[in-house]
Amino acid sequence: MTIAAPRRFTGGRRIDISQLIVWAIGGILLAIVLLGSILTLRAGHYTAAQWRDFVVFGIAQGAIYALIALGYTMVYGVLRMINFAHGEVFMSGAMTTFFLADYLNRSGFLKAHPWISLVAMLLFSGLVSMTVAVLVERIAYRPLRGAPRLVPLITAVGASFFLQYTFRGLFGSGVRAYPAIPVLQGKLWVFQKTQVAVFIGVLITLALLVLFLQRTRAGLAIRAVAEDREAAALMGVDVDRAIVTTFAVGGFMAGIAGVLYALVFVQVQFFMGFLPGIKAFTAAVLGGIGNLPGAAVGGLVLGVIESIGPSLFFDGYGIRAAHQLKDVIAFTILVLILIFRPTGLLGERLGGEERV
Amino acid sequence: MVLLETSHLTKRFGGLVALRDVDLVVQERAIHSVIGPNGAGKTTLFNCITGFLVPDAGDIRFSGTSITGLRPDLVARLGIARTYQNIRLFRHLSVLDNVLIGLHPHINYSLLDAILRTPRYRRAERAAEREARELLAFVGLAGKEFFTAANLPYGDQRRLEIARALALRPKLLLLDEPTAGMNPHETEEMIRLIRRLRDERGITILLIEHDMKVVMNISDVVTVLDFGEKIAEGTPEEVRRDPRVIEAYLGRGAASGLGPSTLPLPGEA
Amino acid sequence: MIVRAARRAIFIGLVAGIAAWHLSLVGLIPAFAQRRLVGDTLTFSYALLIALLALAAFATGRRYPGAAQRIPWGILSALVSSLMLFLLALLVTHLNLRQILLNATPELARVLTFGGGASGAGLVRLLLIGLLAGLFAGGLSALPRPWGRVIVSAALMTLLLGLLRDVLGPLLPQVVTSFLYGTAGLSLAGAVVTFLLAAVLFTLRWSLRANAVTARATAAVPATVRQPVIQALLLLILASVPLWAGLFLSNVADFVGFYILMGLGLNLVLGFAGLLDLGYVAFFAVGAYTMAVLTSPEVGQRFTLDFWVALPIAVVTTVLAGLLVGLPVLRMRGDYLAIATLGFGEIVRLLVLSDWLKPYLGGAQGVTRIARPSIASWRIDSPQEFYLLVLISCLFAWFLSVRLRDSRLGRSWFAIREDEHVAQAMGINRVTVKLSAFAIGASFGGLSGALFASLVGSVVPASFSLLVSINVVALLVLGGMGSLPGVVVGALALVGLPELLREFQEYRLLVYGIVLIAMMLFRPAGLLPERIHRRELEEAVEEAREIAPAEIATGRG
User: Fold this and answer.
1) Top-level CATH class of B1-79+170-269?
2) Signal sequence span per UniProt (chain B) (predicted)?
């Protein structure tokens, strides 16, 4: 049994050299970014339409991050742990659904009933991811609840690689291309139709999630456990069940995100969960982990920054192939947010006691 | 002589005021108790003194110098050691290592000494081990040096925590409910140990305690906190008769879960 | 009672069956179908399947006190697993799943039924094997304490020897080889002899150890004499590797050495100070690239330094990198620290990969023509010669680890690992203590990277992916976090073995995943636990497991 540590004390200010150095590095980075932006804007390589496209793309991408981020944040809310394998939960839905999509495509059903097909794919993917998430919880996390913090973190990393290479073993390491859905081709005003579909899909899912959390008993149980696990248990809430439900719901949304991701990027493969997973985690922290609206906002913010960032920040310096630095920006945001504002932009909303 | 002095000490958590204008004076070689209902701010006071919390206002002086806002490890090095309400040992380490870690600030050799195992390293390590064993013997844990801390019985864990605190060679020792969860016999022994700390080692004791028998038994001075404010101070006898103290306990006695036996009622021995 | 026992036995059998399905369908089991261990029949695939059946029987049986219950319930479990295997064989044969599942081939069906095929004959064969495995495992668990262990160890030893035929064959004297090994794997006679020898050895070791417990208490003197002798012998064997090992084996030994170095480095951070650094590869990369940039004529200033000048610079650079990573993450709690360091590792890789820094770091093509060391006129060129350099580095890192562990700094690391708050209250400055762990830990990684770059002669960004970090974490977890011998065992098992077994390469990371989860569930302190840490970590997990279902409500933890 580990002894619960009390709150982290951050009441007053105490500055030492190590902190000053960190702040100085942060300041330099900020200066680089600002200077780069100014240089880029003055050089005027990009038209307003291009910037707009960047933003639109960023929002579509960010919406998907948001869906995945909700899974991180919900699990964190009830268990105070980072489900490192969540990116792989997302991947498992997308990968498996490829075969359904492929089948629907070849049988001609996809052309005849695109909307029904799409819904079927989303549901299927959601269910697969949900199953995987629940299994991960059952096998890798539940037996270790209450063990030192490091232990479930290590199993989470293990689960992540286990899933990745299981899918690689099952389905091969090649890249698979999702069939195009005819009704989603082309543009609607300035947007790609797929982007619109993604955005609508995310909105509907979010609305359903809010309804679920606010209006159902299971949702209430989850919120109660997030608020205070012990009190919830004393009030007769089945904590284990609430935790499983959380994983299930988070997994379901990750599965939906998987199909939406495949609509935008077309290609899927076993390694696809890693980057979106990390980025969604970044989004969750950005919005304040444990904070549901925060995760959604964080996803959008990250998506947009990542989309316009390489051009805006680096183009002014004349850096070659700045788009390669897209992921560098995402990871830098991740590190910076963890350093400077681990409670997120909107503030960490944690029920009960925070454990160090 | 005054060893520790807080003046106008104030600490807020958001809207909640955990400590308000607390003035506390601890005399050298005193056994000084802090009591008060749950949530009165006792542990916050400890955390402010040991540097884990930085007070919002007020000053803390130790041996005449201000230690307000000093980093916890520096406070510890000045000679303030503490124990915890819920025992916090280095559970996976041996009993001896627990105490050796406490001796950390007093072991002097460089990294190079350690790598080359110079005579200086050997001397310092030997001296440290000797001192650690002596401390363990003092609290009654001789012969258990190589047990794993987590495997000790409860009472021994409390003693080990005190031995570890003593390893800092403190002038002031803060004990947070040292008799919590102990049976009457163990409590008796703990009281004796605390007395010996002061009498044999000249250590000043500041103590949080819920068990009124213990408080009345060993304290030279008792300070009473309620809702973050000091409401009374004096000898056990004086405090016990103070109407505000009685009110503080009796008024919410039922709610705070204090049994009648621990109430400082007048006339009760 | 009987119903419950039966249900439990069937459940465990089903779980083992599902595990077998998983391993089959990801391709692990069919991949080893050609790897013969003993004679012409026992392949590694069969051994794996039999092990699964036996494990099911063992897991079921060990809940019961006597052989009378252990054996029948164990057999039931194994039979259920056998049926599952047969079911998969049937499915694979009669449904065309290959479109989706790569490994659902007729070949798999043959392997699953031990060559019988998805027919009545296959079923009979499977059930028979299930019965035998169940009987074996049940009987084993019913044996008195040491014997079961001795038999299992000896059997594993035999299989390992068969597995390593291609490696060991050429090394052993001709007479021994031709006796032990057949055309593939051990010959039958060789297997029997190996098994018996191993059994005798394990028995001896066990009885020695049983005596040692009492002996050590009474006479401590012999140990102090004995230990240096053993150490000297071990050193001699280690130093002689280049003499008897060929090019291939020396190369493998070098790579194991690189990972041992990294493992020792991460051990300071993760094992001693309790900080999970998932970006440890960054230090390996910094070391390698510093070496590359300083000694290769291809990039940078077009000047080249000597290896021996570049090496210390590379190490110092990694120390600085360690400080740079360490400083900002000091105040983070465990899980955030893991992710932040992972972020650092990825940033390093992405920057190295980018076209932006290509003029300095070589971009995706990397850097080649990195200098090799030479001493006077002797150029250290071949993997065999390089091995000595790696060995010396590992010994040095080991030596430093021991000395630091037994110092006041080491105790401070442990204190931080156990309880950061209390450590501070004990006068420990967490900034300097954590930073020193990061910096020293990083330096080992940098040394490893620099040597790696020099041996391979080139660096490419692909060698510095997250997978390296995961590899190092996995080997630490397998050997036991905080345990120095554990690092070596972990590196041998997770780096050495896969290098020797070609088929294994593809499933390496799958196995790492399994290792990480399984170790945490069943043996969190590792195979060779740090002496005192051991029981506690296991207890903590055991406790957690007991609390988890019901008492989580009381909120301990």
Assistant:
1) alpha beta
2) none
